[in-house]
Amino acid sequence: ILMLGKDHHHYFIITGNYILKDKISKLESRLKRLNALTVPELKELYQDILTNEGFSEKGGAGLGFIDILRKSGEKIEYIFKDVDNQFSFFSLKAKIPIKN
Questions:
Q1: How far apart are CA 41 and CA 31, in angstroms?
Q2: pTM of the model
Q3: What 3-state class would DSSP assign to 15?
Q4: Residue 67: enclosing H or E segment and its boundaries?
Q5: Between 64-72 and 24-35, two packed helices, what is the crossing angle to 10 degrees?
Q6: What are 10-33's pLDDT values in tens digits?
Q7: Phi, psi of 2 (to 5 degrees)
């Protein structure tokens, strides 16, 4: 799911997808860790991943959340809602300040 919106101060992007429950802990830990970083720390981490870790077989280098945080300047909001015994629904909201 993908939604775009706007309020008085921000544009926002909301995404959602099903996730296996056994993946939640790792994802939530990563999001908490990234949300706690400062802008200079995010920039340093981004450069470090590009320089030292390279790209995975799927093509990504794990830069998506870092890129969202760097470009928006806002923390990522997220929730996990139980669907059944195996899956939860993961929803993420990124806000981008409207520049006047």
A1: 14
A2: 0.83
A3: strand
A4: helix 64-72
A5: 30
A6: 999 999 999 999 999 999 999 999
A7: -140, 130
